[in-house]
Amino acid sequence: MTLPVVKGTSYVLVHTPDMILHYGTTCAQEHEANPQSELLKKVPQHIRSFEETVKYAPNQAYIGNILPDELANLPKPWYSNPMENAAAEGKMGEIVDQDEFYLTLKLSDAFDLVMLEKSFLAGLKEKAATKPMYTEKELAKIKEGYELSEIEASLAEGAEPLLRDHKVVGCIKAAHNKDKNLTAHIMVENLVSKASGVIALKNLIYRSKIAPESIEYVIECSEEACGDMNQRGGGNFAKAICENAGAVGATGSDTRGFCAAPTHALIIAAALVKAGVYKSVAVVAGGATAKLGMNARDHVNKGLPILEDCLGAFAVLVTEDDGVSPVFRTDVVGRHTVGTGSAPQAVMESLITKPLDAAGIKLTEIDKFSVEMQNPEITEPAGAGDVPLANYKMIAALGAKRGDIDKADMMNFIKKHGMPGFAPTQGHIPSGVPFVGAAREMIMNGAIERAMIVGKGSLFLGRMTNQFDGVSIVVEKNPGNAAAGEVVSKEEIKNMVAEAMKDFAAFLLSGK
Amino acid sequence: MDLENQKRVLDLSEKHGKENVVVVIGTSEAESAGLTAETVTAGDPTFAGPLAGVSLGLAVYHIFELKDAVDAGVYDEQCGMMEMVLDVDAINSEVKSIRDQYSQFK
Lengths: 512, 106
Known about the structure:
The complex is a heterodimer.
Chain A: E1 5-15, H1 17-23, H2 25-33, H3 38-42, H4 50-54, H5 57-62, E2 93-96, H6 98-107, E3 114-116, H7 118-128, H8 136-141, H9 148-156, E4 160-164, E5 167-172, H10 184-208, E6 217-220, H11 237-245, E7 251-254, H12 261-274, E8 280-285, H13 296-301, E9 310-319, E10 327-335, H14 344-359, E11 368-370, H15 376-379, H16 387-402, H17 410-417, H18 436-444, E12 450-457, E13 469-476, H19 482-486, H20 490-509
Parallel strand pairs in A: 1-2, 6-7, 6-8, 11-12
Antiparallel strand pairs in A: 1-9, 3-5, 4-5, 8-9, 10-13, 12-13
Chain B: H1 3-16, E1 22-25, H2 30-41, E2 59-62, H3 72-85, H4 88-102
């Protein structure tokens, strides 16, 4: 049986400054309740440029240009200490600007719902043609854009606007005139999730240097739901993303579980590969417009830039053993069960110590824990604290209670086995999965042996259960014996047969 | 404090009487503990929920303040780890100060 390995990862941020005011729930709700509010007037002054977003250190960590640990050595606050040598292109992904994203929205639009202004669209196409991520064939499919008057007419009928510097450059129409699940607003959310997922999957294919058709299955794990009035969450984002990313050899399905979904998806992907059902499975998720500027009120009140100005997306490729890539230990999986309860201690035991104890791995043998990796600069001004640090403190306290580490050594443990948070607060995006790429890099260059990916989710937000949820899996150095166990060449078989025949002949000649 | 919880607190205090309701909070930060305590005593400081402008003056405690009132084994199992992690003194003093100012039932 093969070992499932992390063959590649991609991490993408999409800078969408004009979507904060219109599609982020905080600003949208404010607009509905109090359109003349001070907050809405102040928001535009707190929006960052694309360049500022690129130079923001946590974003550089997210796309793989620096390791998360390096953030600890950079001056804080990160938002007022830009990284001057930063690039939008990353080792593991990229930061995409809003213009390019609008083009990807159009490319992802199978039902002619996205209208972009003629000259704006022509400019976008020209720019995209220079990037390796876009094929001539797909760009040729885009028809001519629309006159502004046509877009304005659609807006008057209820379409949702696509803005650039607060000016209309396009819109997204409702997909049905009566169906509440196909309204213009829902189509925006779903197309944004799909399009950012497409960028992540294209990056994964491009950066892993694989043929797009080699992917056999895709698991999409965002937090959106697509379907019509008869099946609100019918799906299937995964296949829609495959189609646009050129993964023609794949089908797929959607896995949901709030912020825990990406780790659920990684475990499922690893299991499918290990069982031999598929040789190559990609886990992918796009971002959420609703969470743009979620803490804008606090950021504005405290004089900060609005730091939630990017959609997050990622993709992870899980394949059969290649003998070098880090391995998912499907035998070291933690899960929060219905009976676990909601006490923090019980939660941490179920996700961290229980699976490690069962596998005979010490807490201190996990070199890095990837928990809820939210960037603390986003959450602290809103009174939510440093979320990853709180998680590391809980792991350390659990270790101290059990006697795995000395109570006096808790802070050292946190420093060594943790890392600063760096991911955007896009729900499922920061949960466990942002470190998989860095873990792969650190394991392969020998910096660490083993990491634990922990995903947690707040299921109660859906009002179906008061349950919390979480799962975890260990990823570790490849033992490097894929060839020995799995592959024997024709030549080797010939030699083995010849050797046996020789032995047999010697046996006969000896007359014994 | 989310709007749904504000409504639940309001409904419970109307049903059982304000003097018969004690709010026990379990938030992990002093600031959010204080805001929650303020919401159920003086009213919603963000003026967004059902308790905006409604001063219930309820008795309110953080679970850390009630350590001695809880069975030691249960407390250790449910709160022991978090007690090691959080700033217990800051949380307790924040909630106490709000309670001293606005609670009518101490």
